[in-house]
């Protein structure tokens, strides 16, 4: 019925609109990435490692995956790029002093903080780790410390001396032009361009990090070739040379001695044949061959023996 003046249908009553796609809770997604292992989905516990893509894992989960790649259903999709423990770095994390030691992890408080500005590692701000030493800092804290500190100079000159560099605030560079800085926590040198890895990056940034990782892996065989070119022998000179076991040749026999021994052997054979020719049948039976069908001799003829 309807349309009799008693009701006026609206568009939403006549046309069904497409339902909106369900949106995941960003807060829960962020908490899952920063509080739980990306592989086993268990809470993060020391020792914690990270790969070249900045994902966080429990080290025992990575060991289980490397021993059995079918231990986790989506293991190949999550960390298929991890070939061995050399592809991950153990992180040096600073525990959160606000949490009581031995207490259960709080769902709102992060278990780790930045040692420079004590910001919690909960996804609210970006965190990075240094691939050279594994120390973890907030991006803002590391940037503030690296910008305020004066990097060491290559020539070792002091302030006030002649020949000092004009740009004292720039990082020290080696022969390849790389900029190096010192870790503010353990004083280990690191490359600003390659050793600073972003933790839990955005999808767009993760794609760039994956491409950089593939380029580094593609360049690994080239480095090995360069090392081999530096050593023309290809390292074979360093290998111990196996001593070849030389077999001493057998001494050759004098032809005259060989002929004399042959004559002696023939004479002995003739004498043996003459001796057997003069034997009686009874004596010959004693020297019968083992293959002979006749088992009796003149000593056992006409007698009964159990073992005859």
Automatic annotation (TrEMBL):
Signal sequence residues: none
Assigned GO CC terms: nucleus
Database matches in Pfam families: Rtf2 (PF04641)
Positions of region (Disordered): 1-26, 146-177, 208-260
InterPro entries: Rtf2, Rtf2_RING-finger
Compositionally biased region (Basic and acidic residues): 9-25, 155-177, 208-223
Coiled-coil intervals: none
GO biological process: DNA replication termination
Family: Belongs to the rtf2 family.
Protein name in UniProt: Replication termination factor 2
Taxonomic lineage from the root: Eukaryota, Fungi, Dikarya, Basidiomycota, Agaricomycotina
């Amino acid at each position: 019925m309807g349309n009799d003046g008693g009701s006026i249908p609206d568009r939403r009553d006549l046309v069904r609109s497409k339902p909106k796609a369900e949106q995941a809770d960003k807060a829960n997604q962020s908490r899952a990435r920063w509080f739980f292992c990306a592989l086993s989905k268990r809470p993060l516990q020391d020792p914690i490692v990270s790969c070249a893509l900045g994902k966080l894992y429990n080290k025992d989960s990575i060991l289980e995956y490397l021993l059995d790649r079918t231990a986790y259903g989506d293991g190949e999709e999550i960390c298929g790029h991890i070939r061995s423990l050399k592809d991950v770095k153990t992180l040096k994390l600073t525990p959160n002093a606000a949490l009581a030691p031995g207490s259960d992890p709080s769902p709102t408080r992060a278990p780790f903080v930045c040692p420079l500005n004590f910001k919690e590692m909960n996804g609210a701000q970006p965190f990075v780790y240094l691939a050279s030493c594994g120390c973890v800092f907030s991006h803002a804290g590391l940037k503030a410390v690296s910008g305020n500190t004066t990097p060491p100079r290559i020539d070792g000159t002091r302030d006030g001396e002649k020949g000092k560099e004009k740009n004292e605030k720039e990082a020290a560079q080696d022969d390849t032009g790389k900029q190096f800085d010192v870790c503010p926590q353990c004083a280990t040198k690191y490359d600003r361009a390659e050793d600073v890895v972003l933790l839990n990056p955005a999808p767009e940034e993760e794609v760039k990090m994956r491409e950089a990782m593939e380029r580094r892996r593609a360049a690994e065989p080239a480095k090995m070739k360069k090392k081999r070119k530096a050593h023309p022998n290809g390292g074979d000179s360093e290998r111990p040379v196996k001593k070849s076991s030389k077999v001493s040749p057998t001494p050759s026999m004098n032809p005259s001695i060989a002929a004399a021994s042959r004559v002696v052997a023939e004479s002995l054979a003739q004498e043996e044949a003459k001796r057997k020719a003069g034997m009686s049948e009874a004596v010959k039976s004693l020297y019968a061959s083992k293959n002979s069908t006749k088992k009796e001799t003149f000593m056992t003829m006409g007698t009964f023996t159990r073992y005859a």
